[in-house]
Design goal:
The complex is a heterotrimer of chains A (268), B (235) and C (644). Chain A has 268 residues and is of the alpha+beta class. In chain A, the strands form 2 sheets. A 5-stranded mixed β-sheet of chain A has the order 2-1-5-3-4. Chain A has a two-stranded antiparallel ribbon with strand order 6-7. Chain B is mostly helical. Chain C folds into 3 domains: 315 residues, FAD/NAD(P)-binding domain; 135 residues, Succinate dehydrogenase/fumarate reductase flavoprotein, catalytic domain (Flavocytochrome C3, Chain A, domain 1, Alpha-Beta Complex), CATH 3.90.700; 130 residues, Up-down Bundle (Methane Monooxygenase Hydroxylase, Chain G, domain 1). Chain C is 37% helix and 15% strand. In chain C, the strands form 6 sheets. In chain C, strands 5-2-1-9-17 form a 5-stranded parallel β-sheet. In chain C, strands 11-15-14-12-13 form a 5-stranded antiparallel β-sheet. In chain C, strands 16-10-20-21 form a 4-stranded antiparallel β-sheet. In chain C, helix 3 packs parallel to helix 6 and helix 15 packs antiparallel against helix 16. The longest helix of chain C is centred in the last third of the chain and has 25 residues. Classes of the chains: A alpha+beta (268), B mainly alpha (235), C alpha/beta (644). Chains A and C meet through helix 1, helix 2 and helix 3 of A and helix 3, helix 5, helix 6, helix 11 and helix 12 of C.
């Protein structure tokens, strides 16, 4: 067809294999011939797996779900970059046309103490859930609430909250950060709720507990390299991190703040 | 209220300390450089007068010096904590991680803060030993300002910078200072959360200006003195 | 023997049925609530909202999902919006109108009482979500913004950019996490549900597999809610996520829960066409594009491979505008999908495969300028460009219909209870309120209505009603758990063992199944085709049983998971074929070629088919039994849907 110039390339893959969390990992090499450039990166890995299965070996484990860049399930450090070389995209939105014929492609899992490898390229990102658990909500219960239009929210505020809320929780910020910091993830949720009127009641407790939990999970601290924003498939701004810092300091110094200190262990 | 001990042991708390101490140190450097501009006078009087007035502050100066030392110590301690936490947070490193560009401030400067910092730490020890605890009045380094006997710090400086090795050491160290400030200045604002999208870029740009001004402001001094004074400076 | 199913709809006028239900329901006193535990499988909109709401009431809730986190459920991918009869724009909307539009859009194959309740609950959903901090789009006035969607003449759709599903799910997820923090919900991530455990005729637990280490686990409770989504992945290629599957509801079906209307599938007209044999997943392009894009194919077959810009206007067939002059390019989804298939079947499809039509923005760009179009659809155009490597500002998009929602699912009564006591189904997993065709922006509404505002009442009613039985706790050491676990284990072991000998990979068999289902139980169904499908599915079933190639171990092994799901999808596919075969009428997404008007439109047969078909499982390889629930319309008049 007209504009579509699908061609094929040959690639050499170096994929990380690791039997289990405790096992020693290693790079395994595979040759893949005649890869269509219109193929997505994960479809290329699907094809690789068919090849591996047919040779009787254990397939390569990697995660994906929606394959349209919104669920945050896919990960992968491709050529040393979280979600590969294309900005503002997840690995499932990466296409083989981003690579050249004969290229050697190195694929590693997200690497962080808080994201232990389960097998091969699959890591356990539940630390994010525990951070969320520590306060990433308004506390509203199911039941009757004031009419949705009872509280007016300026459009620019709603838009800024939405910018922060766009986070898909994939963990690329941690993976890309030289310090393996989870500041971008944590701050996005704190900012979203700090901006909205619905988030005010719990505002101080939220930031204190979420930051405490983030630290407890073993993420590194932020050194302001902004690599997280560069790697974020939703291009979430580190301005959120600055807001988190204000929020935390204000909450920590607030004389009227008492709640939450006892349960800073992240709850049950 | 959250206990201060707990506040400042959090990852955010450490960065508040690091950012605040860093900004304080920038302020100190600016004052220090302004004072050092007296060295461009070509004679010892302005420098020695300035030094004498400083010393006239007596206990206040000691207090300032102790404060400065503590600030530096705080900066160093938090720096090592941050570096350690980063290492601990990623026990197995990537084979070859690359920056994704775009807004990333991942650069030689930002990636190597700990190393430029370590160099500056070493420099600091040498520098303080050389000038603060260097040849004193008892050693005969005296000068007369308005008829009063003062410490001839100017002579100490000139003697040091008559030697090429010291010139090279100072110039080199100041280049490290430049790199450190390139990321450090902006980073301090971000760490303290006192930044917003409007000011982020200007502050980052100002960081470059400050890095250049301070680094070159300091490093031209040994060069200037070597160039102008070394002929007459030998005893 | 076929039985007539009783949906248990309360007496009284339509608008008071739900109030009547609530007024007469059994309650559970607060001190007793903590003695009950409820299992909720799935953490999408329906599952997360149900789990959080039940926990808030005081029940001990166990929440299960296959992902690492509850936040990844496929509800997250819904783009467009959520309907609610708020009538903020003052444009004549009302609960009645939302109810009526939904019944009509479903081609009169949904239950009146359920749909009316859905419309009633819709307004509370918006209030609930706003209170959670869901950042809905707003006007400069600070009020919530609305837009219009297909099948409605009012603006009742609330949205959060193109990520409405994501924001609603994160709202429900955050509420769920709040309850986890309080200790009222225990999370069981990385779990796949493989069986329902029935004790003395009541659902009292489930068997799960921990996908990370392969452990088979038993979980007991006093009621079980399945909110595990639809089964669009039976087509292999669909807009559903890779992990969407039928297994949870199919295992319940195998245990005796009837399956309602399996042949009702929604095929969305605007997706990016299939581009290669390796493809695993299709991508939706929002329906909104049809506001400005014109759909066409060449009039002459020989023009199909030409550069579209060289084809003159008189040689183009703007077939939607030609056939449906009053709705034109905005014809409803089922109609637009079928029309695209028709022109491609005539050999006038475009693209390499010939299975695509053009969606052309040339005229809109000429009229409004590229900047205006970029403003409206920029992100969609970028997404299209990214995937196809073609610039839609310069060349027309190529689109084709794809499966993206299933209206069928477990049959449930008015209280969302399946035919197995104590087993409830919510969201896309139940046979739902959408009849034979779902309107845009209604899936999110239904999932949240079920989870926030229906199950908390109906599950309570169930627990209250059966308190005497249920307060006798069942332990996981019960014999029913033993046998269920044994069955699950032996099935997995058998697959792994057989898998050593076979030659066909899971993907190969799966892809073949998808092709059969798409070709023969897709947009147009015929008696002959459906019979062929049954035969072909049987052959694939045989391949699966005897020639499956499976490698790896019983620990984390996605291919093994997929094999288990394929096993169930094969059976489901056969049931879909049977259901389609038995429903000798066309309605909504179900188009039988034998039942059409002279001009090729769907021809309903209200006399014989105004009912829900609910199928009873009779064992592997056995012919299932079809039961009926008669649909009674007391409030709306059945009429012909026309879009001419």
């Amino acid at each position: 067809m007209s504009a579509s110039q699908s061609k094929t390339i040959n690639v050499r893959l170096r994929v990380w294999r690791q039997e289990s969390r405790e096992a020693q990992g290693f790079f395994e090499e595979h040759e893949l011939k005649n890869v269509l450039t219109d193929m997505s990166f994960l479809e290329m890995l699907d094809v690789l797996n068919e090849q591996i299965i047919k040779s009787g070996k254990r397939p390569l484990e990697f995660e994906s779900d929606c394959r349209e860049g919104i669920c945050g399930t896919c990960s992968l450090m491709v050529q040393g970059q979280a979600h590969g070389p294309v900005r503002g995209a997840t690995t499932c939105q990466l296409y083989m046309r981003a690579f050249t014929d004969g290229e050697t492609i190195t694929i590693e899992p997200w690497r962080a103490k808080a994201f232990p490898v389960i097998r091969d390229l699959v890591t356990d990102r539940r630390a994010f859930d525990r951070i969320q658990m520590a306060g990433g909500y308004t506390g509203a219960k199911t039941g009757p609430h004031a009419d949705a239009n009872a509280i007016l929210i300026p459009k620019d505020l709603a838009d800024r909250a939405m910018d922060a809320a766009a986070c898909i929780g994939c963990g690329a910020c941690v993976a890309a950060c030289p310090n393996a910091s989870a500041s971008l993830f944590t701050s996005a949720k704190i900012t979203q709720l700090a901006l909205l009127p619905q988030g005010q009641a719990d505002r101080k407790r939220r930031v204190i507990r979420m930051v405490d939990q983030m630290d407890k999970e073993g993420f590194g601290s932020c050194s302001n390299l902004q690599e997280c924003e560069a790697a974020c498939p939703k291009k979430i701004s580190i301005q959120n991190i600055a807001i988190m810092k204000q929020e935390y300091l204000k909450a920590a110094l607030a004389a009227d703040f008492r709640a939450g200190m006892g349960s800073a262990d992240g709850g049950a | 209220m959250v206990p201060l001990s707990r506040l400042f042991s959090s990852t955010l708390g450490r960065k508040y300390l690091m950012g605040a101490s860093g900004l304080a140190l920038v302020l100190f450097l600016v004052v220090h450089l302004l004072g050092n501009l007296t060295l461009y006078a070509g004679s010892g009087d302005p420098m020695n007068t300035y030094a004498a007035r400083l010393h006239a502050l007596g206990p206040a100066l000691i207090a300032l010096e102790v404060g400065l030392a503590l600030t530096i110590l705080l900066h160093i301690v938090t720096a090592f904590q941050v570096t350690y936490s980063a290492k601990a947070a990623r026990p197995v490193d990537y084979e070859n991680a690359k920056t994704k560009g775009g807004p990333s401030k991942n650069s030689v400067s930002s990636r190597n803060m700990i190393w430029t910092g370590v160099v500056l730490g070493v420099f600091l020890i040498v520098h303080v030993a050389q000038f603060r605890f260097g040849p004193s009045m008892e050693d005969g380094y005296t000068a007369s300002v308005d008829g009063v006997m003062v410490h001839d710090i100017y002579r100490v400086v000139v003697e040091a910078f008559a030697q090429l090795k010291w010139v090279a050491f100072y110039v080199g160290s100041m280049l490290f200072l430049g790199f450190h400030l390139r990321h450090g200045y902006w980073s301090a604002f971000q760490s303290l959360g006192i930044i917003n999208p409007r000011w982020s870029k200007p502050i980052h740009a100002l960081g470059l200006v400050i890095a250049l001004l301070l680094a070159f402001g300091f490093l031209f001094i040994p060069i200037y003195i070597y160039a102008t004074q070394s002929g007459g400076g030998n005893s | 023997m076929s039985i007539e199913l009783n949906p248990g709809i309360p007496e009284g006028p339509l608008s008071q049925k739900w109030d009547t239900y609530k007024a007469n329901m059994k309650l559970v006193n607060p001190a007793n609530k903590r003695k009950y535990s409820v299992i909720v499988v799935g953490t999408g909109l329906a599952g997360a909202s149900a789990a959080a709401s039940l926990a808030e009431l005081g029940y001990q809730v166990k929440s299960f999902c296959t992902h690492d986190s509850a936040r990844r459920a496929h509800s997250i991918a819904a783009q467009g919006g959520i309907n609610a009869a708020k009538s903020y724009p003052n444009d004549g909307d009302s609960v009645w109108r939302l109810f009526y539009d939904t019944i009509k859009g479903g081609d009169y194959r949904a239950r009146e009482a359920n749909v009316y309740r859905l419309a009633q609950n819709s307004t509370s959903i918006i209030d609930q979500c706003v209170s959670q901090g869901v950042p809905f789009a707003r006007e400069y006035s600070g009020e919530l913004a609305n837009r219009s969607f297909g099948g409605a003449q009012v603006s009742r759709t609330f949205y959060a950019r193109g990520q409405t599903g994501q924001q609603l799910l994160l709202g429900a997820y955050s509420q769920l996490m709040k309850e986890v923090d309080k200790g009222k919900v225990t999370l069981f991530p990385y779990r796949e549900m493989l069986d329902v455990v029935m004790v003395d005729g009541k659902a009292r637990g489930i068997i799960t597999r921990n996908v990370t280490n392969g452990e088979i686990e038993r979980h007991a409770a006093d009621a079980v809610v399945l909110a595990t989504g639809g089964y669009g992945r039976v087509y292999f290629l669909s807009t559903n996520a890779m992990n969407s599957n039928v297994t949870a509801i199919w295992r319940a079906h195998r245990r005796g829960a009837l399956f309602g209307n399996p042949c009702y599938v929604q095929i969305h007209p605007t997706c990016i066409p299939v581009s290669g044999s390796y493809q695993a997943k299709l991508t939706l392009m929002s329906e909104s594009l049809r506001n400005d894009g014109r759909v066409w194919v060449p009039k002459k077959k020989e023009d199909c491979k030409k550069d579209p810009s060289t084809i003159a206007d008189e040689d183009r067939d703007y077939y939607l505008e030609r056939k449906y002059p009053s709705f034109g390019n905005l014809a409803p989804r089922d109609i637009a999908s079928r029309a695209a298939k028709e022109v491609c079947d005539e050999g006038r499809g475009v693209g390499e495969s010939g299975l695509a039509v053009y969606l052309d923005f040339r005229d809109a760009i000429k009229r409004d300028g590229e900047a205006a179009i970029r403003e409206r659809y920029g992100n969609l155009f970028d997404m299209y460009h990214e995937i196809t490597n073609e610039n839609p500002y310069q060349a027309p998009m190529r689109i084709y219909p794809a499966v993206h929602y299933t209206m069928g699912g477990l049959w449930v009564d008015y209280s969302l209870q399946t035919t197995l006591p104590g087993l409830f189904a919510a969201g896309e997993a139940n046979f739902s309120d959408h009849g034979a065709n779902r309107l845009g922006a209604s899936a999110l509404m239904q999932g949240l209505s079920d989870g926030y505002f229906i199950l908390p009442y109906t599950v309570t009613n169930y627990l209250g009603t059966h308190a005497q039985d249920l307060l006798k706790k069942v332990d996981v050491s019960h014999a029913a758990f033993d046998s269920a676990e044994k069955e699950v284990r032996s099935e997995i072991d058998r697959m792994l063992e057989n898998g050593k000998k076979g030659k066909r990979t899971v993907t190969e068999i799966y892809r073949d199944l998808g092709k059969v289902v798409w070709d023969k139980i897709g947009m147009a169904r015929s008696e002959q085709g459906l019979k062929e499908a049954l035969a072909e599915i049987e052959k694939l079933q045989k391949d699966f049983d005897t020639d499956l190639l499976l490698t790896g171990d019983s620990k984390l092994n996605k291919n093994l998971e997929m094999a288990g799901r394929l096993r169930d999808l094969l059976e489901l596919a056969a049931l879909m074929a049977r259901d389609a075969l038995e429903r000798k009428e066309s309605c909504g997404g179900h188009f039988r070629v034998e039942s059409q008007t002279p001009d090729g439109e769907a021809q309903r047969d209200d006399e014989n088919y105004a009912h829900v078909a609910a199928w009873e499982y009779k064992g592997k390889g056995q012919v299932p039994v079809r039961h009926q629930e008669k649909l009674v319309y007391e409030n709306v008049k059945l009429s012909v849907r026309s879009y001419k």
